[in-house]
Amino acid sequence: MKSKRIKVDNDLNKAFRIRKEVFVDEQGVPLIDEFDEFDTLNRLCDHVLVYFHGQAVGTGRLRVVNGFGKLERICILQPYRKYGLGKLIIKALEEIAAENGLSQVKLHGQTHAEGFYKKLGYQTSSDVFIEDGIPHILMVKELPNK
């Protein structure tokens, strides 16, 4: 199990395939809503992949929004959700946020994942809202000073 910051288009395409399978095929998010102007290899955001036995099985991205690091598009292929890989994605994105001098991160978490994020130090900061037909909550975390 390892995480890797995406630096080449081939890896970005792996992330896109994972996101399509999880969000579009499994959860029913419209394809047009899943991909946006931040899905490139530039300084608009950073993307990561997580690997299990050499296979890319999870991904996430980080953008800077209003002084926060915003963790987005965090997902893992269904057969690999029981191995603690989500923690690797979150840790990698938080490290990138800290490298960029950010002290706070936030995310729109699906409500079923609220407990997972709380275990990683996130606090619920909103009522439930609907995003792409799925209930979400805003969660925030202060990053430790280094």
TrEMBL record:
Protein name: Putative N-acetyltransferase YjcF
Gene3D superfamilies: 3.40.630.30
A GO MF term: glucosamine 6-phosphate N-acetyltransferase activity
Acyltransferase recorded as keyword: yes
Pfam families linked to this entry: Acetyltransf_10
InterPro entries: Acyl_CoA_acyltransferase, GNAT_dom, GNPNAT1-like
Organism name: bioreactor metagenome
Keywords: Acyltransferase, Transferase
Ranges for domain N-acetyltransferase: 1-144
EC code: 2.3.1.-
